[in-house]
Every structure is written in C-alpha cells, then in structure tokens.
Write a structure and sequence with these properties.
The protein has 13 helices and 17 strands. It has 494 residues and is α+β, with helices and mostly antiparallel strands. Strands 11, 12, 13, 14, 15, 16 and 17 form a 7-stranded mixed β-sheet that branches. The protein has a 5-stranded antiparallel β-sheet with strand order 2-1-5-4-3, sandwiched between helices. The two termini are 81 Å apart.
Length: 494
C-alpha cells in the first residue's frame, strides 16, 4: 500500500466537515484572513460574507478574546505557536467552545504567514464538564455517607485513595509512604492472609471483592472496614476499583445487642427454671422419702434382730435406684440451666434429651393430673447442642402446662418421627389453639398471651433462634384442632 501524497479537494472538505475541523491562514503583509467553509459554518456566518481579522476577534467572548489576541500577537511578532481552548459567540448568538491552533511560517527570519486549524469542541467540552460535574457530585455523596473510593492499577502496582478513605483510615496525605505500603501496615495482623486471599480470588476469577476486615490506624484505633470492589480489564491494563467504609459503630452495636440478648436469654432461662423449682423440689422430695423409708425400715429390722441378707439387698437396691433417679433429675436441671450457646455441635439421641426434659416436669404434670402420651421412633439422631434442645422442649412443655392446667381435659401428646431426611417433633396439647390475631406475633420477642407476671414473652423467640441455629425450623400448625407446635431438624443416619 502506498502513501497518499495529495488529497482530492472534495475529499479534504468532507474530512473537515465530518471532524468539524476547519483550516485557516493569515497573510501578514496583506493583512488578509482566509478560512475553509467549515470555519464559516462553525461561526454560523451567512454564505458569501467575508470576515476580517478584526471581525474574527469580535466573535470571541471578552476573556477568550484577550487571551487569543495576546497569543496571536506573539505568534506574528515572535514566531511562538499556540494551542488554545476558548469560547466564541456565533453570528446567531450561540455560544460554542472551540479549539484554535496557530503556527508561524517564517521566511528569512520574518513571520510571513500564520496558519492553523479551528475545531468545534462544544460537545466534547460539555461532555467533559458533565463528567467532572458527575465526579464532583459522586465525591460529595461518598464524602457525605463516609464511603472512600480506591483504585488499584494492578499492572503498574499503583494504588490511589480519595480524601474520604484517608480520613476513614486516619492517614495523613503527605506521609512519605505509598498507599499500598500503608494499607499493608494498616490491616490487622490476624486479617492479612484472609484479605490477600480475597483480593487474589477476585483477580483470578473476576468475582466481586466483598470482605469485612479490621485495621489498626496510625492513631492506634481498631476499626472494622467493609470493602467491595470489581476487577476491570482494558487495553492490557487490569484495574481493581471499589469502595470502603467504616462499620465499626454497627459492629459494636451488634456485639452490644448480642450481649444484651444473651443476658435476656439467661434471665428468661432462670425465670423458666424458677417456675419449675417447686416441681423439681417435689420430684426430689419423693425419692428422698423413699430413701428415708427404706433406711428406717432397715434400722427397725436391725434393732429387732430380724434383719436378713435378703432384706438388706432389697433395701439397698431400692436406695441405689432412687439415688440414681435423683442424680438424673439434678443432671437434667444442671444441663438445661446453663448457657450452652458456645457448646460444640455433637451427635444427639433425641430419646435421651426428651426423657431428661420430661423428668424435670413430670412431678408438676402429675400433680395437675396432666396426661403425657409419647409416640416416637427409636434411635433418632441429630447434630445439636443437648442443653439448647432440652431448653426448647422444656419451654414448649411449660407453655402447654400453663395453657391447659385449668382445662377439664388435660393432656400433652409428643410425636417424634423420621420423615425423609428430617426428624419431625410435634408437641400437641388439649388446648383449642392460638387465636389467629396472635399468630404473626407469637415468635416475636416479649410477646405473650399469659397473664402479667406469668411469662417473659421470650421463650418462643429464643426457641426459634436455637432451632434455626441447628439448621431446622419451628412453626405453629394452624391446621390442627388442638394447639400444636412442629419442630423440624436435619436427621443424621445412625
């Protein structure tokens, strides 16, 4: 392919028109200004109308005119070229941004001609101004909501922060350390490996960078930072850009709320145990009476000289059996009264937990003539925390007791069945159900239908949290004619 040495005049005009670039020249000795048609079009001058140098300067707005006149004079007198962006007001009174370039033609040390190009850049200028304005608005928004913008040129290993990010991280802008070095120093030692792994994953897989980590600022403050970013690739350059913001207040608030919830749960648990205290006392008093009776009987036989080996064995067996019952009651009470939220998950036999729960309420239920019926599959196993599951079962049993203790028919039925990959537990009592107006609120904290002083309103809320933490669900069965709560837990094959 050869090089075009000369363009057809028609083609030259078409190129100027499409690019909105006009060609002009000024003949110094003749004081004559010449320009292509595009220049006349940009100025919106009627066809056939000539423009002198003075008239040409008059199209420029005052500030632009003084600037151009100075540079044009320096070009004519000193041979200094210029390249300016200025504003004109056209023949039709429209304002336009133009770029004007002038070069001197020097012969024998004298400028004989100034020539150059003239381009309408209004669209580009407006677009640029809009971009600048949008960036200013974005900066204002991000600054207002305390979000910092960062960009990492991965190809050239160059990290850029905006002012808000410097403020968030409590770093001075004029410090003699690059942002990348400073960031590495800021990240909490325990978080560095995780932060770097997340960045590496985003770069290699184009996944969104989304991470919460801690920093230690130069002022010694530990802050929680949330950061989100996206990898962009263009023209062989990889950019990693995103936003970071301080969530320390939110994290501290969440930790405070969690601590308060733990205290509330502990209070609710103690209140529940307080309600069972009298029943447990009776439960322990009964076997103690049996032990006392057996001991008195053996002593009486001994005093009469009629104590046989068989009587001793029978009495001791009864005492040992009864002591075992007391130990079991105390074990259940101690297990279910403690805070078990930090216990590890373990394989749990539901039979054992359910029996322990029933042991703690059986005396109270017997005293109120409440019949308990159990229909269960054997050896059903789940992953869980025994103490927490026991607390849930106790809460449901206690709720049933409070609801039916004064009814004519008093019974509680417990069904435990394996259904596909789940274990379903149904706690049913002889109550006629919960009124539909309360159904949306029964699992909300502090909601209760009990009389004042007879409940904290936290039992079902806490139970819901425990079951969901075990990967399960708890709900009220509104299709049942009696009050029914259903628990679903993931089953574990024995």
């Amino acid at each position: 392919m050869g090089i075009i040495s000369e363009l057809n005049p028609v083609l030259t005009d078409e190129i100027q028109r499409v690019a909105q670039i006009g060609y002009w020249k000024y003949l110094v000795d003749e004081n004559e200004l010449q320009g292509s048609q595009v220049i006349y079009d940009i100025h919106e001058v009627p066809k056939g109308m000539e423009i002198s140098l003075v008239e040409a300067f008059n199209y420029y707005l005052p500030s632009s005119r003084s600037l151009l006149e100075k540079h044009f004079k320096d070009c004519v007198e000193l041979g200094i070229p210029y390249d300016l962006e200025v504003m004109i007001q056209t023949y039709n009174k429209n304002k336009k941004w133009v770029r004007t370039i002038g070069h001197p033609k020097i012969i024998n040390g004298k400028v004989t001609e100034v020539y150059g190009v003239f381009q309408d850049i209004t669209h580009n200028k407006n677009l640029y101004d809009e971009v600048v304005s949008s960036k200013a608005r974005l900066d204002l928004v991000l600054s207002s909501i305390k979000m910092g913008l960062w960009e990492w040129d991965c190809t050239n290993d160059r990290l850029i922060w905006d002012d808000t990010l410097y403020e968030i991280l409590e770093v001075e802008r004029n410090i003699n350390v690059s942002p990348s070095e400073m960031f590495e120093k800021l990240v909490h030692p325990d978080e560095k490996q995780r932060v770097m792994a997340a960045a590496k994953e985003a770069l290699e897989s184009d996944k969104e960078y989304n991470i919460h980590f801690r920093v230690i600022t130069p002022k010694g403050n530990t802050k929680h930072i949330m950061s989100r970013g996206k990898v962009l690739k263009k023209d062989g350059i990889t950019w990693f850009t995103g936003l970071s913001w301080d969530i320390t207040r939110e994290v501290v608030l969440q930790e405070t709320i969690k601590a308060q919830e733990s205290r509330i749960q502990a209070s609710a648990r103690l209140a529940s145990l307080g309600e069972m205290a009298s029943g447990i006392a009776h439960e322990i008093n009964n076997p103690l009476s049996v032990i006392q009776t057996q001991a008195d009987f053996l002593k009486l036989k001994l005093n009469k000289g009629s104590l046989t080996e068989e009587a001793i064995n029978q009495g001791l067996d009864k005492i040992i059996e009864t002591c075992g019952r007391i130990v079991k009651i105390i074990k259940g009470f101690r297990t279910f009264s403690r805070n078990a939220e930090n216990d590890p998950m373990m394989l749990v036999q539901l039979d054992e937990i359910l029996n322990d729960s029933l042991t703690l309420v059986s005396q109270k239920f017997n005293y109120s003539s409440i019949e308990i019926n159990i229909d269960k599959d054997d050896n059903l196993t789940v992953m869980g925390r025994p103490a927490q599951l026991g607390q849930v079962f106790l809460n449901l049993l206690s709720n049933s007791f409070d609801a039916i203790a004064c009814l004519e028919k008093r019974w509680v039925s417990i069904e435990v069945k394996r259904v596909d990959d789940k274990v379903k537990l149904r706690f049913i009592d002889s109550g006629s159900g919960i009124h539909h107006s309360s159904l949306e609120s029964i699992f909300q904290p502090f909601f209760t239908t009990k009389d004042v002083g007879k409940g904290t309103g936290l039992g079902l809320s806490i139970s819901k949290g425990i079951i969901e933490d075990h990967g399960g669900k708890i709900h009220y069965d509104h299709t049942s004619k009696n009050t029914t709560f259903v628990i679903e837990l993931p089953a574990v094959n024995s």
